[in-house]
Amino acid sequence: FPVTIGKFRHGVLFKVLNNESFLGYSDLSPWPSLGDPHLEKLLSASAPTHILLKVALQNAESFADQRLSIDSWLKTVKLNKCNNALISDISEFSCFEDYYKSGFRTFKLKIGKNLKSEIEFLNQNTDLHSDIKLRLDGNLLFQSAEWSYFWDQLSGEVKSKIEYVEDPFLFELSAWQKWSKIVLLALDFALDVEDPFFEKAAKSNAFQVYVLKPSRQSIDEVINLLPSHIRVSITSQLGHWVDSVWSGWQLENHIVTGK
């Protein structure tokens, strides 16, 4: 599956047929670079005990059960209605104007690969339109000190456009509590929802947004663990388009008060 220009990761699709003869699909494409088991290890297990494999199988079954609703939704969905446009690397910024003309006003930018280039890029390019918002995603690539340097070098104009920063550095309670008073922080890979510390962290004001991926976790189970003040951003995990369809449909059908 293409993750960004010229880069791929391994994944598989599951297909199931339910009792009403509807086909359902799901995507299993782990991120070993972020701590997931390799695909071969997941598939060689004698039983689906790992959460990623269990959720993938459950999603395929649910997809089949909801097939008519999903097909109906796909005929009417407008992708720029609530989505952000993803720029996986600053080298892809040439796509920005096309996204903007298509109606996107929120842009998610992956950062942490080249600090100086990214700082320069943001300071020079984000004043192109006054109505855009930015979501920065560090993917745990920064050290705490590097993130502090990065933030200090951003212009006030850039900072005013930032909606939130996702996983700027590895989760550490006191450090995240400090930074969450400066900029809204979003938690994704930095602390696993299966971790017994997760619920405590969610109540500690160390982050204000939780990035939830229906291809990896149960929406209802996660939301039940989160305090009402935590916002939820439902998104795909950059897998097969089946994952994007499933995530989009889940977003459309999970309107939760306070989220």
Average pLDDT for all residues? 86
The biggest beta sheet, please?
7 strands, parallel
Number of helices: 11
How many DSSP E strands? 11
Q: Give the radius of gyration.
A: 19 Å
Poorly predicted parts = 1-5
Strand content: 15-25%
In whole angstroms, the N-to-C terminal distance is: 31 Å
Report strand order across the widest sheet. Answer: 5-6-7-8-9-10-11
Percentage of helical residues?
25-40%
Which class best fits the helix and strand makeup? alpha/beta
Q: Which outline best applies?
A: globular
The topology string of helices and strands comes to: EEEEHHHEHEHEHHEHEHEHEH
Explain what this protein looks like in three dimensions.
This protein has helices at 39-44, 51-65, 67-74, 96-101, 115-125, 144-153, 156-161, 173-179, 198-202, 219-225, 241-252, and strands at 2-4, 7-8, 12-17, 23-28, 85-87, 106-110, 133-137, 162-166, 185-187, 209-212, 231-234. With 259 residues, the chain is of the alpha/beta class. The radius of gyration is 19 Å and the shape is globular. The model is unreliable at 1-5 (pLDDT under 50).
Gist of the model:
This protein has helices at 39-44, 51-65, 67-74, 96-101, 115-125, 144-153, 156-161, 173-179, 198-202, 219-225, 241-252; strands at 2-4, 7-8, 12-17, 23-28, 85-87, 106-110, 133-137, 162-166, 185-187, 209-212, 231-234. By secondary structure, it is an alpha/beta fold.
